[in-house]
Amino acid sequence: RRAFNDVWVLNIDNSRWCDLLCHGNPPAPRSGHASFEKDGCVFVFGGWNNETQFNDLFMLDVDNKDWSDLDLSWGSSRWNMASLLVEAIPSWRVFIFGGSTDGGEGRTIG
């Protein structure tokens, strides 16, 4: 297996994929991550590759094609989880459900 960290965009009008060339600080190549979109930004959380498991959070500003590491403190590394962005009035919330971990670190995220 080989993990990737490239970004592809599907043009729904013509059913064609194109590679989105980005700059900044992209996440390491990975799979099994969770992602969601809010206000023109794509967020990528967790995942794994052949070398390690991740518990980091990155943001891609789609208009500027710029990656940022949000440098948040999380608990156990996890992958193959589900994520959901919800407008929980008065503010937005992201829920992470389930997943896998490769250690006895417990199940807390933060």
Give your account of this protein's structure.
- By secondary structure, the chain is mainly beta.
- Residues 106-110 have low confidence and may be disordered.
- The protein is 0% helix and 45% strand.
- Strands 3-7-6-5-4 form a 5-stranded mixed beta sheet, with no helix packed on it. Strands 1-2 form a two-stranded antiparallel sheet.
- It starts with 7 loop residues before the first strand and ends in a 13-residue tail after the last strand.
- 14% of the residues are buried.
- It has no helices and 9 strands.
N-to-C series of helices and strands: EEEEEEEEE
The helical percent reads under 10%
User: Pairing-aware structural class of the strands and helices?
Assistant: mainly beta
Report the average pLDDT across residues: 84
- Terminal Cα separation, in Å? 30 Å
* Radius of gyration, whole Å: 15 Å
pLDDT below 50 for ≥5 consecutive residues: which ranges?
Answer: 106-110
Q: What is the number of helices?
A: 0
Strand content: over 45%
- The number of distinct β-strands equals 9
User: For the largest beta sheet, what order do the strands appear in spatially?
Assistant: 3-7-6-5-4
How does the overall form come out from the CA principal axes? globular
Largest sheet: 5 strands, mixed
